[in-house]
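Technical appendix A lists one of the benchmark inputs used to test multi-chain prediction within the project. The record comprises two sequence entries:
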Amino acid sequence: MSLLSKKDANLITDPLADNNPITIQVLGICSALAITAELKASLVMAISVMFVLGAGNVVISLMRNIIPSKIRIIVQLIVVATLVIIVDQVLKAYAYELSKTLAVFVGLIITNCIIMGRFEAFALANGPWRSFLDGIGNSLGYGVILIIVGFFRELLGSGTLFGYPVLGDPIMKTGLYATGYENNGFMIIPPAALIVVGIIIWVQRSRNPALVEEN
Amino acid sequence: MSLKSKLHELKLKYQGKKMAPAFNAFHTFLFSPDETTHAGGTHVKSADDLKRTMNTVIMALVPVLIFSMFNAGYQHYSAINGFPADFSLMNDFLTWDNFWIGIIKVLPLVVVSYGVGLIVEFIFAVIKGHEVEEGYLVTGMLVPLIVPIDTPLWMLSVAVVFGVVIGKEVFGGTGMNILNPALTIRAFLFFAYPTWMSGDKVWVYGARERSEEILAGANVDAISGETILGYLAQNKGAEMTYSVSDMFFGFIPGSVGETSAFLILLGGLFLIFTKIASWRIMVSAVIGSLVMGLIFNQVVDFGWVGESSKFYGLMSFDFWKHLIVGGLAFGIVYMATDPVTGSQTNKGKWYYGFFIGFISVMIRVFNPAYPEGVFLAILLMNVFAPTIDHYVVRGNIKRRMNRLKNATIYPKDSDGKAEELKAETV
């Protein structure tokens, strides 16, 4: 008897690859573009979304039978807003510098389409445990893409990872910079994230042609 | 026996051999093949296929390339020794010393651009399983002509890979791209490595090293090598020593091949004469830039912008001179007229070209980071070209529908069937 049944395990693994919220469902793009210039910010954003989506899915799932369907969007918004404020306050208290970098984007988790999408599509129709797994799975799928994009953007754009200079010092011209290498300023600006995400989508779909949409 | 028929015989001899594709590529490069269509196929064939079109554009670019090689040396030696007081074309410009600088600085750019670009094309041709496309022939020649001369070769390689893959191959290869690949490469370089693409140290070979020597205390008497637009953007137009004929014939610093408006004009006329490029786009782009230039001149004349304004230098620049400095002429002739990314309809070409000229001069004046905007304007209009075409086509349909609605049908039939048919159509 494993910890998770096969059906439950799929709730976690599907969003990681073939049903990824960013590359397949194309949700939550805005934050993937905005905060992925640094790996650290990407990681914190991924964890924040994981908390909000996991807890939110459970709360909505528990209330699913008592929410009048006419006002369900409002109820969902209140739940998300509460959770996001908790995240925001925690960040401000324990990681003030980082919360300044993330700035408005923590608040904007409220508008992240993935969260409302999972509430509507899954939590309203399933029990708390399965909803929790679904929330974790989707936020993991979201986080994986964020971290991949953040990795390439920070490495190529700033020559650092988590703030550590891995390629040498660009001003003192040590390491790779001694050979004439320079940081790519294009990777710092948000359009670069669009292209990196696009390349991920391209690679994923050419490896698995079943994912290519007919139009 | 002519060379053409000899080649044709050779072709028959090599048919089916391993050498055939290589020979064919060379053969069609020189001549249109001596083949007739089989019965049942299409019978009207034009000799100007894709390869011929590309070759013609390259022919139009060769004078610009050769000029740019001489100019590379001329700018280099002028920056060291000062501009010759009594300029003579043969003694000061068309010299071996100047040409040698061109060979060591400009040719590597061309070689790297073609080498890297064709490798990428070849890899994609193998993956997709089709013949190598000709699409890179023109791009590969344009790229070295629109970058600063001191661009490091590895940066150029990175940008070429990016431009060919993201600008063209992801959309399906030659003929399917939305953006001009050469300009995608230029824009990538501009955003990725701004210190190598703008400022006053990149336009003349060796200017960067000399400025470092001066900083280190060396007593070198050097001219900065700022472009004309760079002077104007800093409101230093009065310090500039270039005459109008310098600007027109191209004895000025700038991107490798963009300086000589005269040779670009000849190239443009050649392209119009051979019907490769659209004269509508060129003419409307020139009009567009003149209109925007005139508006800025008028604003200055009315006194709305004083000499203290940071835009004064570029705004007060005579409107027609915008055409002979910077990359505007080069962009209009060789880039805006790209048949893949430009507008396809004749009416659309007028709008497309006009806005390229108009927006180019606007960006040139207002861009705080870099006083040039041709490549951005053309990329922007590349994006809008399909929309322009869409509305032109729809307008045409609407006009013809109206004509049909108001048409009287002759001869009047007795049972009104024609009227019924018309009512259905309209």
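Residues 50-392 of chain B form one domain. The mean pLDDT of chain B is 83. Comparable benchmark entries are summarised in Table A2.
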